[in-house]
Amino acid sequence: MAMAMSDSGASRLRQQLESGGFEARLYVKQLSQQSDGDRDLQEHRQRIQALAEETAQNLKRNVYQNYRQFIETAREISYLESEMYQLSHLLTEQKSSLESIPLTLLPAAAAAGAAAASGGEEGVGGAGGRDHLRGQAGFFSTPGGASRDGSGPGEEGKQRTLTTLLEKVEGCRHLLETPGQYLVYNGDLVEYDADHMAQLQRVHGFLMNDCLLVATWLPQRRGMYRYNALYSLDGLAVVNVKDNPPMKDMFKLLMFPESRIFQAENAKIKREWLEVLEDTKRALSEKRRREQEEAAAPRGPPQVTSKATNPFEDDEEEEPAVPEVEEEKVDLSMEWIQELPEDLDVCIAQRDFEGAVDLLDKLNHYLEDKPSPPPVKELRAKVEERVRQLTEVLVFELSPDRSLRGGPKATRRAVSQLIRLGQCTKACELFLRNRAAAVHTAIRQLRIEGATLLYIHKLCHVFFTSLLETAREFEIDFAGTDSGCYSAFVVWARSAMGMFVDAFSKQVFDSKESLSTAAECVKVAKEHCQQLGDIGLDLTFIIHALLVKDIQGALHSYKEIIIEATKHRNSEEMWRRMNLMTPEALGKLKEEMKSCGVSNFEQYTGDDCWVNLSYTVVAFTKQTMGFLEEALKLYFPELHMVLLESLVEIILVAVQHVDYSLRCEQDPEKKAFIRQNASFLYETVLPVVEKRFEEGVGKPAKQLQDLRNASRLIRVNPESTTSVV
Questions:
Q1: Domain residues of the chain, as ranges?
Q2: CATH number corresponding to 546-716
Q3: Do residues 609 and 582 touch, judged by C-beta distance below 8 A?
Q4: What is the mean pLDDT of the chain?
Q5: Helix (H) or strand (E) holding 459
Q6: Backbone phi, then psi, for 672, in 5-degree steps?
Q7: Could you tell me the CA-to-CA distances from 257 to 189, 251, 394, 426 in Å, in that order?
């Protein structure tokens, strides 16, 4: 019975939660009102949790069922796709068979007619056999087997063989559009990872007379492949990999910006791959060289028209014919020039940036002051492509995505090669961007310690050391370059200083540290900034400009604290002498006043431990002098008026209170005591403030002189009993 009630309750709860107008807030409110106590809420919570777990299990079960159905559907689609490819392959073979019938019968018929006329049968078999052999050119055709004009039956046979073979490779129909292209060699290979030497996949290589196609196996469709990559032989370098059991029969292909390692079935096939690749590359290079020589060959001189052909031409007006200057030829047949594109590819693949730039400098020096016929333009076009690839690699070396370890010296190699390539501006930009990322990372990795001053010491050390190292490395790398790079460095230094000030202000000013702590932190930052003067870099004005708002805010905030504390003490002022109770306390007060600059404090001390001054005036003196000392540590010219106005506001609060009390007090003894405190303020405290301000700033302040010279700063109505502050 209880089980039935529980099931019905769970069913009602599920229906309630699944209803369209369910509102969680209203439901919880009603549940809290209807429950008798904590036990009911706990039981209801358990029911909801059980329902949630049941729902999660149902959801997992549905997902699993859907996943199984998806796998079955995918398997059916794969089977159907395999059958479609098989059907397409059969249709292609039938089409090829039908197309080959006229090509084999027509020569035979012609030969048969000739044999009937001569009475012999040998011509039929010979002609048919030769054409059949031409039509069935195999996978191991050599470049020399193709006729040069590409119009003979042998060329048609090679093209037909290539067409039939490549129809088994998905996604390579564009290869058939290249005229004069034929298959040289093909075979199965196994690809290995270049870094870890782990087996990756089975592939099939198709070597054409001008490129290499790599296709991957399709396990579900036997004899079919999928296009993987196509590499031009001009930019391909072949490297023999030394056998290191169990890794053997391997060779490496280098093509910017990657390299791939393949394993042949045995040593013989590996040797065949290496030989046929080199032979094909050599044949292609020789073909290109012949084309360049033919293009550079001088044309015959134009025919000169005889004078007799124009009887009306006056001999006197005839101008002498200007002989046509024959275009100077440039010798590009040297081996190092022929192999230059491939050598550049190898240098780029092996990260030999200096070697690549040396080759480019050698070529530029050789072609300097030489004409630019079509072969030279073609060579320059190939070289420019390699220069672009080399530039991309060097740019990647300097990108912030690379490891930032090693400091600025780690970028010297890439920067120097970019400068040699004439990319000075780009090298400067990338170098500074790399260093900005390094500085930002170093600042972010700093641990925020409990003590603010300790963190600021670490922050300044990390930032200014990085800035100093960057400046020195910049001076080494870009010495003798355009002066615009140095302007870019100054702009970057200002941006980096902004990054530093953000971290500095967040820790010092945003956390509402005391003015003394802020002053010490700013002092540390200034000292580190002055170290940059050793290399002729002065950024002090930048750090002043970036910190001025935060320091103004700190001065204003601390000024308000002092004013508020002074007003609070003024409200409780009883105008009584101070009794310090012990000689030690009196001696400590004398030392404090002496450190504040009040040297004649002895004349205000009385018998025993009495001081002939009010507690309010003494506290105000210590607080004001402390504020002045800390503010002078923060001082720079942009803060002159802010500091001066803050001092005037603080002093006004004290002198207004003394003036008001002197006007309102009726007791003669207290009135005399107030005059003594006023005399201390005007004749002792204000001169000390004025003198210390002038020492710290370097010039006197007229506003403070006016305060000291005035007998009263604010005239209060004698009949009034309120103070105007």
A1: 27-83, 168-293, 336-536, 546-716
A2: 1.10.357
A3: yes
A4: 77
A5: helix 452-477
A6: -65, -40
A7: 22, 17, 12, 21
> DSSP alpha helices (H): ranges in 180-298?
267-296
The answer to whether the beta carbons of residues 494 and 542 sit under 8 Å apart is yes
- Per DSSP, 605 falls in state B
CATH of domain 168-293: 2.30.29.30
SS (H, E, C) 63-98: HHHHHHHHHHHHHHHHHHHHHHHHHHHHHHHHHHHH
Give the position of tokens 């935060």.
Answer: 550
Which tokens hold the place of 505?
A: 């202000």
CA distances from 110 to 116, 174, 689 (A): 10, 36, 125
Q: Are 115 and 136 in contact (CB under 8 A)?
A: no
Residue type, 9: G
User: Against a cut of 0.85, is the pTM above it?
Assistant: no
- CB-based burial label for 661 (10 Å; 0-12, 13-18, 19+): buried
* CB count in 10 Å sphere of residue 603: 8
Measure Cα distances from 292 to 242, 295, 374, 375 in Å: 37, 5, 8, 5
Report pLDDT digits (tens) over 458-493.
889 888 888 888 888 888 888 777 667 888 888 888
Over the stretch 29-78, which tens digit does the pLDDT of each residue have? 777 777 767 777 888 888 888 888 888 888 888 887 887 788 778 777 86
Query: Residue 112 contacts by C-beta under 8 Å, 6 or more apart in sequence?
Result: 124
Query: For 554, what's the count of Cα atoms within 13 Å in the CB-facing half-sphere?
Result: 28
CA dist 107 and 131 (Å) reads: 8
Residue 655: burial class (beta carbons within 10 Å; 0-12, 13-18, 19+): buried
Cα(171)–Cα(398) distance, integer angstroms = 36
Q: Which amino acid is at 205?
A: G
